[in-house]
Design a protein that fits this description.
Length: 247
Amino acid sequence: MPFRLATAFVFLSASVVALADEPKKPDPKSADAWIDLMKPDVWKKHDPAWIVADEVKLDPEKNTRLKAEKKEGGKVWLNGEKGRLPNLITKESFGDCEIHVEFLIAKNSNAGIKFHEVYEIQIFDSYGKKEIDGTGMGGVYPRADTVKGGYLDRGIAPKVNASKPAGEWNTLEVVWKSPRFDTEGEKTAHARIVKAVLNGEVIHDNVEVKTPTGGNWMKKETATGSFMLQCDHGPTAWRNVRIRPAK
């Protein structure tokens, strides 16, 4: 084989090997269709004040606060030094979907997850309470009177109070079914929580959500919408947050 041809062949072979050895760029959607939401670029706005860490715990000096040491590449997100940051809202819209969320809150803290930004499942320090309504951990938040204040109903209480003490991780999994509309845009079926499981216990099973919740209850409903983590009500840490369109 001529020297120049042989040299070109070796160079080409080495290039192919090098390309084969290069790591593949991670697919944001895993093989089972889960979308990893622990990435800043999936959110419309990700405040630079978020604290990324490996672990978070109650502040030993004041249990209404959380404490974490920053670590690049950490798997836990804490909503700032003061425990209040702008809500996280996905760029992508979703209809029927499943979510998996792990969260940890401080004593008396308050957060939530919202489908379409308007249907809220409440996150609130409710450990040890014998009775809770829609304002307690895992409840479907009640409609709010935006003029006079207070609530218009009690929301939908979870079947059981499955919350853990402040400072411990909770796991919430929800199968969500969006409202249905006809070709004229008229609603033909309410939104529905097919199933919600908190810390291994079923808290909602085939529950209709007839309107948006809180102060959003008069807003126009849609077949799809962004998923939201409420981050502006109190110290909250998140990890392993993911979503996938329902099959």
